[in-house]
Specification:
The protein is of the alpha+beta class and 122 residues long. It contains 5 helices and 9 strands; from the N terminus they run βββαβββββααβαα.
């Protein structure tokens, strides 16, 4: 499954009209140890680019942004109970939430792997 990226260091995979969102390995490393997450509520409607939660580390608190518009259909309870999953497995079990996209074409506008690598100097 192709992974897309945002300039805010989040990744997105799309299955049908549902987008799974997490933070990139780069972000997980740069942020430091994640100690707390505030995620959007299931059933809430979100807009592309809107702040939908926070990620708190030992160093800072950063906003989480929604890369696509739609309805939050699932939140990863595992990361709420064990925030360290975001650092340990940011691309697998450390995903954050799923969005049923109201405008699936928005996912096409996100960065591909090469563009993201250029963004972070890779």
């Amino acid at each position: 499954m192709e992974r897309k990226y945002t300039k805010e260091h989040e990744w997105v995979t799309v299955d049908g009209d549902v987008a799974t969102v997490g933070v990139t390995e780069y972000a997980a490393t740069e942020l430091g140890d994640v100690v707390f997450l505030e995620l959007p509520e299931e059933g809430s409607t979100v807009d592309q680019g809107a702040a939908v939660g926070t990620i708190e580390t030992v160093k800072s608190v950063e906003d989480l942004y929604c890369p696509v518009s739609g309805e939050i259909v699932e939140v990863n309870e595992a990361v709420l109970d064990a925030p360290e999953l975001v650092n340990q497995q940011p691309l697998e079990d450390g995903w954050l939430f799923k969005v049923q996209m109201s405008e699936p074409s928005q996912a096409d506008e996100l960065l591909d792997e090469g563009d993201y690598a250029s963004l972070i100097g890779g």
